[in-house]
Structure to design on (460 residues):
């Protein structure tokens, strides 16, 4: 990596720090406790999550999701604190997702965070959801300075770090890749348990045929809404068989598995391309994949092939950290808290739009 | 439309003590109403009670605002109920 050596502004702490992180920007309600110790180590004490799963063919709407979070918040938080073997009094700060995400669910979690903050007289730390993913990915994988591909149901961004800012190199021009996959899963009525993306991945493994789809990279960015329209149109194609079985032997058919396979191959290739562009631009050899779609092993495989051709490495985490969780909020929150940042109660609102590059990354050189 | 023809709703929520009522007020007051021109909100503490007064330009808004407020105050009240006692039990530090 070009650039002169800069000393990290984050020093080893003089005492252990513990933070609680609360996440609820989409349909996952998570609470996690992290500990930063005097030797510089960062330990996950607990990571508890409950997901709001809708019936097949249905997405999750803000009002019902917020209701789910209100029902589960206290249980999940108590569970996380108990599993971490601490009391609320041991916490240094309470971190919560300030944004981006869905308004009502975010606000439900913020209400609980504020209440706990006043009851236990602990400072609040508002955290950017995207930065949370990045910091947890860095911590778990140990990647030094990777190009980050952040792909989830709500976000699709290619990010690189420079001078205390996570800069967005490329992103989706319309919908997120996870959103595209989830909405297609609804069209073919796949189960949402454990997540629609997981079920698309399993279905795609049975695919035998690659159907033509638009390939819409736009320079450093991607566009996905047109691909969604195209793949949905295939379900009206006369060759499409929803049950996956031909009416007669040796018929030319398209199955749901073929469509899942084609969709994944196309969108993942596009993501690999824009990631490679960013890598070439800044001369990086590492890729870190974060966000729910990062669990997808086919995406990891394709990224790995590209990285290997450039003598690079791909870093990814498992579903505990890929999928939205509370511990990533605790991690990013505690890092900024240790650099002197906190959120005043009157300012502890939530916002649906919160750009990754709006955050001052004070803890990195 | 003059404000004298607006619809008003007053809700009283009792808490265990004024401290808890104050916490609830502070927590809920942070978020602004989504339609600030059409919904006026006032939160206050009277003894052990949180008193919320809403003035809205339409009946529909009165229903939505009241419903939203009650959902939020229920969450805050349950949180205080769950953690309130434990928060009073400050640990004694031995140095």
């Amino acid at each position: 990596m070009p650039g002169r050596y800069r000393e990290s502004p984050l020093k080893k702490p003089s005492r252990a720090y513990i933070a609680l992180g609360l996440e609820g920007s989409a349909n996952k309600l998570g609470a996690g406790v992290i500990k930063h110790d005097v030797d510089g180590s960062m330990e996950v004490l607990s990571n508890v999550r409950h997901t709001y799963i809708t019936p097949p063919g249905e997405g999750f709407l803000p009002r019902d999701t917020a209701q789910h979070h209100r029902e589960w918040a206290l249980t999940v938080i108590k569970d996380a604190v108990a599993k971490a073997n601490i009391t609320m009094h041991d916490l240094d700060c309470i971190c919560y997702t300030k944004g981006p995400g869905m308004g009502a669910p975010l606000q439900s979690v913020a209400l609980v965070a504020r209440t706990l903050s006043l009851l236990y007289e602990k400072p609040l730390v508002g955290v950017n959801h995207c930065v949370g993913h990045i910091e947890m990915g860095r911590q778990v994988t140990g990647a030094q300075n990777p190009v980050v591909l952040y792909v989830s149901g709500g976000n699709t961004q290619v990010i690189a770090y420079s001078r205390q800012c996570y800069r967005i190199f490329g992103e989706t021009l319309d919908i997120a890749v996870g959103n595209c996959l989830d909405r297609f899963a609804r069209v073919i009525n796949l189960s949402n348990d454990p997540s629609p993306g997981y079920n698309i991945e399993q279905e795609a493994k049975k695919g035998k045929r690659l159907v033509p789809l638009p390939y819409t990279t736009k320079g450093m960015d991607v566009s996905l809404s047109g691909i969604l329209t195209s793949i949905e149109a295939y379900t009206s194609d006369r060759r499409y068989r929803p049950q996956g079985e031909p009416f007669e032997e040796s018929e030319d058919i398209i199955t749901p598995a073929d469509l899942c396979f084609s969709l994944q191959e196309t969108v993942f290739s596009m993501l690999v391309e824009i990631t490679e562009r960013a890598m070439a631009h800044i001369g990086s050899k590492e890729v870190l994949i974060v966000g729910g779609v990062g669990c997808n092993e086919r995406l990891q495989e394709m990224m790995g092939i590209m990285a290997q051709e450039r003598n690079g490495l791909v870093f990814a985490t498992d579903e505990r950290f890929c999928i939205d969780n509370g511990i990533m909020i605790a991690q990013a929150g505690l890092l900024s808290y240790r650099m002197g940042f906190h959120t005043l109660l009157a300012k502890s609102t939530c916002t649906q739009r919160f750009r990754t590059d709006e955050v001052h990354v004070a803890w990195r050189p | 439309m003059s404000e004298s023809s607006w619809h008003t709703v007053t809700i009283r929520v009792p808490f265990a003590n004024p401290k808890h009522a104050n916490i609830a007020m502070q927590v809920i007051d942070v978020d602004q109403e989504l339609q600030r021109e059409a919904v006026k909100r006032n939160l206050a503490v009277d003894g052990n009670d949180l008193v919320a007064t809403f003035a809205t330009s339409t009946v529909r808004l009165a229903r939505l605002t009241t419903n939203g407020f009650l959902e939020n105050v229920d969450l805050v009240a349950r949180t205080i109920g769950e953690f309130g006692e434990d928060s009073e039990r400050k640990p004694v530090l031995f140095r």
Summary: The longest strand of chain B covers residues 7-14. The longest helix of chain B spans residues 59-88.
